[in-house]
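ok, trying the design again with the full structure, not the truncated one.
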């Protein structure tokens, strides 16, 4: 064997080469170590390469927490940890995708084998293989919040909560109560007494409704979002062999944004780590905890060392994201919150402008100002995708959207109705859901209620006639089902059954795209044209859905993906692809973990931000201040804070004078720059009576 070194070996082959080709080596063979050393500071490097055990990285925004956790996964894979034994829990699906794509560039395609996603996604994956232990079949459907309300209505009928002649709680409120109780880990009674004392008298019926709702879900083989977490947690708590299996499977568990986990989530990851390999790395920032309304508790992060004795703690103190001016401003915001872990952050960036505060006459002028600033940014070379408008409430964006449309500025929304929450998309998904799970009551109801002449009672009768049959899809075409349908609707019902057959013939379980095409060739487009506004746009949307489905080889993962896209924690654009040059409009909650060169935060007035509701809740204003903190810490270079002086213009009532948000007023003036707007009108059009040429 020849032992000459690499260089001499290369130059010996065929004389002096005439050109050099730079070969980009895939990391993994020593290359990764070099990359990490280059891209991490010392504290980050230590956190990335810490050996096994429980580790907490507690640090402020922009300090590289997400970078650390991503690189740690790469480092583990590089050291030979099988990627499929790594569980990486992120806050949104977008975050998971971004982290996996960064990982791919570090360790290649092995990155795709990491179990990465939100708690709900991971729960779904785990339950698909073990749902039968809990009385579900693995083909269970996932219900979104609208399905949930729909099914709960039926359960409330059963429990005597409707038609009482008294003001009983509405289904949307009951869903909220059940979810609050679940996510905060308390009983329904405690949730009602603590948060909804006005409806204590309905407690017995609420409890019955909760039981009936659970039974109906099980009978329909449906899970709501909370079930994906709750049933996963039951699997771990009640089935020791399942706990052992999962604990053995996940050698390393990593969690981003730990401050926004709730009791169940933290218990799950800690139990699995403790009973298994003992490796849990969590990162977060208590000052960015903004999901208390969903049961998040920042004690999960602050008490991590107490719950896990012997854990190592890492502090990162350099902010790589924002200019010193923005960092000083954001520190001043936080100075007004009493609790939390004190951190000092120093910016690694060079100096930039101070955050600019601008009052405007009203909301219209505020929208005009923001659009003008956005366009000016573009002229200075800051592309649309490097700018974002982040607002507290979805409706704060309406006037801005209107102005963006007028000025033809392309934007993407990360709040409000998302693609998968729109009725026509949900209709089509309902067609597919009954193919995957023929006992899915919500999906059947949705479809049956589309047929003229069939109301809730008839829909329930048809469903009752088929639900216990061995093959409900076949039974729906029998006389037994048809008898439940009023005579005048039977023709249409027959056509609907015919469509179901055609969809079935397209092999939906293996070819969801063909199944959607079959739906579009049947009677459904006529329903869209008859019942919805802008039908052609909707049909065009559904054609996009065919393309999207074309990427999936099976119906079940396609459906799970779509149903989870409506999950608050995993909003996505249609194909998951971001258009390249568009402005982002987002609620602050959806902007967590992200960053833009320029950030605009509008409508900084009392009652909007802080939100009116928060003022009566204990700790409510502090939570709002953390939301504000999350917003302003997204900015890398420039931050614009605006507010209208008057609220509500127009014929419907007098203007109200707005009070600027306390979050602006409490900041010492040296951290800000303020500006005022001076309207400038272009030269007036020369007057010319119609039909005559304008005067010279
Ligand atoms: P947040 O709390 O907002 O989630 P974070 O702590 O997770 O923030 P990252 O998003 O990981 O911070 O990093 C913020 C920015 O700083 C990113 O653009 C990242 O690429 C960059 N960054 C992080 N560490 C370094 C470093 N050592 N050198 C250069 N840039 C870095
Ligand atoms: Mg982060």
């Amino acid at each position: 064997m020849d032992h000459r070194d690499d260089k001499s070996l290369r130059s010996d082959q065929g004389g002096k080469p005439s050109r050099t080709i730079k070969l980009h080596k895939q990391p993994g063979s020593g290359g990764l170590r070099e990359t990490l050393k280059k891209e991490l500071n010392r504290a980050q490097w230590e956190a990335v390469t810490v050996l096994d055990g429980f580790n907490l990285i507690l640090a402020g925004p922009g300090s590289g927490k997400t970078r650390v956790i991503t690189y740690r996964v790469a480092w583990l894979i590089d050291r030979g940890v099988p990627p499929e034994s790594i569980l990486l829990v992120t806050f949104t699906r977008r975050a998971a995708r971004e982290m996996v794509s960064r990982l791919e560039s570090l360790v290649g395609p092995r990155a795709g084998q990491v179990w990465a996603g939100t708690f709900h996604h991971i729960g779904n994956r785990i339950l698909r293989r073990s749902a039968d232990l809990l009385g579900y079949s693995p083909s269970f459907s996932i219900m979104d919040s609208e399905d949930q309300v729909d099914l709960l209505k039926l359960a409330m009928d059963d429990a005597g909560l409707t038609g009482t002649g008294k003001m009983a709680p509405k289904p949307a409120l009951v869903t909220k109560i059940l979810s609050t109780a679940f996510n905060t880990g308390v009983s329904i009674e405690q949730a009602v007494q603590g948060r909804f004392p006005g409806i204590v008298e309905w407690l017995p019926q609420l409890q019955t409704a909760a039981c009936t709702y659970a039974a109906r879900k099980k009978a329909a083989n449906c899970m709501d979002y909370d079930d994906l977490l709750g049933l996963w947690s039951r699997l771990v708590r009640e089935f020791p062999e399942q706990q052992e299996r999962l604990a053995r499977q996940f050698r390393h568990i990593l969690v981003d944004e730990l401050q926004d986990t709730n009791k169940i989530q933290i218990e799950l990851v800690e139990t699995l780590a403790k009973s298994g390999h003992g490796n849990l790395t969590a990162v977060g920032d208590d000052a960015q905890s903004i999901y208390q309304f969903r049961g998040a508790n920042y004690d999960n992060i602050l008490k991590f060392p107490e719950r896990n004795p012997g854990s190592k703690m890492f502090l990162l103190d350099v902010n790589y994201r924002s200019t010193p001016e923005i960092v000083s401003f954001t520190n001043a915001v936080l100075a007004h919150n009493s609790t939390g872990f004190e951190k000092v952050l120093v910016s690694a960036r060079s100096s930039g402008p101070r955050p600019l505060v601008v009052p405007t006459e009203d909301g219209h002028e505020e929208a005009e100002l923001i659009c003008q600033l956005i366009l000016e940014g573009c002229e200075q070379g800051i592309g649309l995708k490097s700018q974002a408008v982040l607002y507290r409430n979805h409706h704060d964006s309406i006037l801005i959207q209107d102005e963006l449309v007028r000025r033809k500025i392309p934007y993407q929304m990360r709040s409000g109705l998302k693609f998968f929450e729109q009725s026509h998309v949900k209709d089509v998904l309902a067609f597919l859901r009954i193919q995957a799970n023929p006992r899915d009551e919500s999906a059947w109801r949705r479809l049956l209620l589309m047929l003229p002449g069939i109301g809730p009672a008839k829909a329930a009768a048809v469903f009752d006639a088929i639900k216990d049959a061995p093959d409900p899809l076949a039974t729906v075409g029998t006389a037994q089902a048809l008898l439940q349908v009023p005579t005048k609707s039977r023709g249409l019902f027959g056509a609907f059954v015919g469509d179901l057959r055609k969809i079935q013939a397209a092999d939906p379980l293996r070819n969801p795209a063909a199944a959607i095409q079959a739906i579009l060739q049947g009677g459904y487009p006529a329903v869209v044209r008859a019942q919805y506004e802008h039908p052609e746009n909707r049909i065009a949307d559904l054609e996009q859905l065919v393309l999207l489905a074309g990427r999936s080889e099976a119906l079940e993962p396609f459906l799970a993906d779509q149903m989870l896209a409506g999950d608050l924690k995993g909003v996505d654009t249609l194909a998951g692809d971001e258009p390249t040059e568009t402005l982002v409009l987002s609620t602050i909650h959806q902007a967590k973990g992200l960053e833009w060169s320029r950030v605009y935060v509008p409508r900084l007035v009392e009652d909007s931000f802080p939100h009116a509701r928060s003022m009566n809740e204990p700790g409510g204003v502090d939570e709002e201040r953390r939301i504000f903190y999350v917003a302003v810490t997204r900015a890398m270079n420039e931050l614009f804070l605006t507010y209208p002086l008057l609220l509500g213009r127009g014929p419907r009532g007098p203007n109200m004078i707005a009070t600027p948000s306390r979050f602006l007023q409490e900041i010492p003036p040296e951290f800000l720059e303020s500006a005022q707007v001076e309207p400038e009108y272009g030269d007036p059009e020369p007057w010319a009576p119609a039909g005559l040429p304008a005067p010279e």
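Keeping the full-length input from now on. The mean pLDDT is 87.
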